[in-house]
Amino acid sequence: MTVSKRSALQIQRKGIPTVVTGAIQRVLVVDDSRAQLKMVETMVRRWGYEVLTAESGQDALNICRQHPPDLVLSDWMMPGMSGLEFCRLFRELKNEGYGYFILLTSKSEKGDIAEGLDAGADDFLTKPVNAPELRARITAGERIVSMERQLSEKNRQVSEAFDELREIHTAIDNDLRQARTIQQSLVPERMTEILTSRVSLLLRPCGHVGGDLVGMFKPGFGRLGLYSIDVSGHGITSAMVTARVAGYLSATFPEQNVALERRFDRFFAMREPAETARMLNQRLSADPGVEEYLTLAYVAADLSTGRMRMVQAGHSPALLLHPDGSHEFIGDGGLPIGLVDEVSYDQHDFTLQTGDLLLLYSDGFTEAVMKNGDMLGDDGLVQIFRESARCGAGPDILEDMFWRLTSQMGNAGKLSDDVSATLLEFDVLKNRHGSD
After folding, report:
1. How far apart are CA 327 and CA 322, in angstroms?
2. Is the dihedral of CA 342, 297, 292, 375 positive or negative?
3. Taking a C-beta distance cutoff of 8 angstroms, is the pair 4, 20 a contact?
């Protein structure tokens, strides 16, 4: 039934309660004076509220535990538990909604008002109670309680949304952890020895998964393919591209490896690195599902002679460290793989000597920002490479380089880019094999 404003006014004048539909429906009146209690109860009930009454603070607390009120009208001065004490204990109750608290008092000093507010009171009303003023205070309380409940509802909705997001985040996090495991499996061998040389690999993504890839394959006696790849961007998309490229340079399935070609139906021979880069570029450019490009440093090595053939496609130049501590960078740039459809690549031929260390690395090393705000750069890379080479061998060199890098970085050593490297230690096991 719809009640008009005029009808509601007529009902009020006849003493019949109107229906309260606002935020405040249940009011608790507390006063040790029965006359005062009855007077306030009658006024409030006439306005259509459900009214509960108590003659002491303790009785009021018991009611609040069983039937939490939306609004409390409590006398300040009462024997036993005062209205102030009752207010403090009321605020300590674990009720779901907010209860608006009005203290009825004859006190008007600022200190008293401050004490009441400190105890948790929302408003004050001077006795004797004036009906219009009481109605106005209840109306004000209703606005506060309404806003509080709206806020609580929105907080509940936000909390539920947050819980859903947390579940989604957990699922995504689990998927990314599994993806990381899969990506790590693309580099099954982190160290291998071939003849008198040793190869080590380092792969440290800045997130769960990354766009860097390092690897090697061994097509025949003394033959070795080494590569360092950096896919544009970061995260899942880049990681998916690295997975595809890993298949193009597979060590397990040589027939799928674009760096190899079958000869006389008997064995696989290594293509020229420049041709390998061209074929990779052709495949990625023609793949409609790949919009990213990648940089590549690839070396076809003959470990029996020390002859190296290298192609550099937009990647960082190779770093060659000699036993006497001198160094040189090899490579002069080139276009990345997958950037344009038709492109040719230059090739660099050089020969390693006993004890030479050849490092292929991503720009996650050289572009890392140090604590002083500068990037590590080429000179910084040479320094940590030289220092790490003095301290260890094999994978320990790369691990030490990574430790030195992150310990000098700003942002508490947190990576902003993937860091990866491939290290060839040429002819360093010669003495050991000779003694065998």
Report:
1. 6
2. negative
3. no
